[in-house]
Amino acid sequence: MPGPVTLEAIDLAALLCSRVCHDLISPVGAVVNGIEVMEDDADEQTKTFALELIRKSANTASARLQFCRIAFGAAGSAGAAIDLGDAEGVARGMMEDEKTKLTWNLPRVLLPKNKVKLLLNLLLLAGGTIPRGGSLAIEPVGEGDAMGFKVTSAGLNARIPQAVPALVAGAADNPVDAHAIQPFFTGLLARACGMTVTLAPEGEAIVLMAR
Question: Containing H/E element for 154?
Fold first, then answer.
């Protein structure tokens, strides 16, 4: 049975930093590769390809940084509120691509930053249930300061990763590493907001609730 996880603050910070670096390594590395190609004595067609690679990779890196700034960072002073419209913008930049589409049905209101951070982390969890892509739909549960969230993910072979429910609940079979820190952090955020996160299959889809 999974046991409770206890992390020192310094370890939590280090693991979250590792998670952010993991998200950025690929697009930043692609930018470096593109620059190296352009610096070589390549033909114009190759240089054009390299420039397009740099452009796309830089945009991806920027989108991931903007998302991580809110999802994992301070994103303002203590007690700050965040506009859900801003959250939608960074969520689309992070989650949407040629394989995955996001339907956002939340009102444009200000919510406490920890609740918005929880929302973005829920989307990351939902994205992890459809590794081959598909659709993500988010809608409110309740309204006002008591608003919760429902995220529905649908895609080929959608499934809940085995370790995730326990990690969200603050438990694990093994020491938490950089791969496992995001679902664990989601649970921390939910408890800080006085909320509970559940994940359950619903037909061929997966439903995540925070309320």
Answer: strand 148-155
Distance CA 111, CA 143 (A): 11
- Evaluate whether 187 touches 167 at the Cβ level (below 8 Å): yes
CA distances from 89 to 7, 66, 85, 95 (A): 32, 9, 6, 10
> Quick one: DSSP state of residue 7?
-
pLDDT at 3: 77
How far apart are alpha carbons 91 and 78 in whole angstroms?
22
Name all domains of the chain by residue range, CATH numbers in brackets.
3-21+79-210 (3.30.565.10)
CA end-to-end span of the chain, whole Å?
26
pTM, whole model, 2 decimals?
0.91
CA distances from 62 to 108, 120, 122 (A): 23, 16, 21
